[in-house]
Sequence to fold (369 residues):
Amino acid sequence: MNASPFQRLKHLVAASLPGDAPGFRIAWQCPSNIALVKYWGKREGQLPVNPSLSMTLERAITRTSVTFTPEPSGGRKLSVNGDPAHPFLPKIRNLTGWLEREVPASGSFSLEINTSNTFPHSTGIASSASGMGALALCLVSGMIRISGEEFTRAELFRMASVAARMGSGSACRSLFGGFTLWGKDPSVPGSSDEFAIPVADMVHPGMLTLKDTILIISREPKSLPSSLGHDAMKVHPFASSRVSQARQNLSDMLGALKNNDLEKLAEISENEALTLHALIMSSRPGAILMKPATIEAIRRIREARSQGLPLFFTLDAGANVHLLYPAFSSGPVTDFINDALAPLCDHGERIDDGCGNGPAEILENEMFP
Ligand code: PMV
Fold:
């Protein structure tokens, strides 16, 4: 990793802690993302076994504020939405604990975290990605504020991407708009296993108009926590061929994004989605996360594409289907969704989203109570 911004921050924060500094509050909003080349399998240190590429969403957002209260004599407290035993806290502690090792003085503050999502739970939208992204931005910006020094926006987002990764791997990709790459790829200068980078300048503008309608096939909570899925890949018989496949798919997908090649993008995205589920099914113990309606939706989507409608799907590690299509075909695709896909959704439910611009700071006058 390019550790220098964190090293700088560590020394600056340690030097500027006055002990009786006033508390303050910082807030950010951060979107979720959907992977098109999937991260599945990790190494020690929350590092990926293969590079992954995602599209940042626009409307599926977490809004988080953190109130920093100095605790010069120790005994920092953490709470989420007023609850000191909130179920999010174990994951949050992975992030705050890591930050404390990087920037020890960050542990001298109690943190009151208030957070809410613009989207409902169990919808196939990764709330951990947007949640950890927003929290990482608040924590890193908080440390920068205490340091009293200027850091560039690129340094802030890079540090936040590293920090978000410690809470949830895929969260590190939510820090940038458009399309984002996480993981070292020899063809992309500056790519790293430690943080994600935006690849918007390698993407045809047409691709930035992609829409994502999430078909809510099932609201049942996921039966496979992703940490167990990543662990299972350590002993998966197809692990090494999966890594080679992901590298090849990434390289082909970067080509498709550059050339505005929707057909190629569709082919690779669907291959990635089905491979993810095939790996999950063939793990020990295997799990089947798709529902009959997931498979029927896939069949109908492919049939519509064969008849000329430009659309394709991807899946997260769950039953719900992300339907992707360019903005110019929104009209006919909406008709198709209403006729053929809505009947497969739980109470007809779906969420309309699309490619978005990334996180934004929430100013004090725009803050929620
Ligand atoms: O970030 P995690 O540990 O929740 O893993 C996410 C894995 C997938 O969502 C299935 C794929 C991905 O790249 O986002």
